[in-house]
Write the structure tokens for this entry.
Amino acid sequence: MRTVCVYCGSSPGARAEYRQAAESLAEQLVDRGFGLVYGGAHVGLMGNIADRMLARGGEVTGVIPRALVDLEVAHESLSSLEVVPDMHARKARMAELSDGFIAMPGGLGTLEELFEMLTWSQLGFHAKPVGLLNAVGFYDRLLEFLDHAAIEGFMRAEHRQLLLASQSADELLSLLGTWQPTVVPKLESR
Ligand code: AMP
């Protein structure tokens, strides 16, 4: 991996630990020589991770839809900022630029981006690792729900395992680095 895409909240969250987790992930990325691709905003955890990467001399690429440049306050000091026409173009471009994906704590936007990358992986549209930085156990209940969905027969066990998860940025990046794609078809060909 050379470039990691991070999805995270445009809000700061209710605890300082979320910002600390974003900053710690930024430090791990810089230490490992990875560039960051993210949504290009200056707000919330998105701003925290970008600021810490830049402060440590890291490479940061932002990808933001035109309509959100003002709303999310596009970050003005990034290594590069791409302004794209819409949300679909944003996700496609972020995916294209990145060798792996990590979701940090966030809201609906973060979840949407995470699940799109997982469903593309499940369908074999990409073969890149997808991880969840489960800071302060924020995603514990989501992980339990995904286990439930697999037990209830809506997801293959192999597809449940597509989502790598850790509370530690260091461990999560190691998991992403050693991940090997296995092709298990979601749908049998007819
Ligand atoms: P949130 O987790 O809701 O704070 O959103 C995090 C980021 O996801 C923000 O940059 C949102 O603009 C972005 N976002 C929200 N909905 C979508 C979507 N449907 N597709 C792509 N990005 C989105």
In short: The beta strands are 3-7, 35-38, 60-65, 80-84, 100-103, 130-133, 163-166.
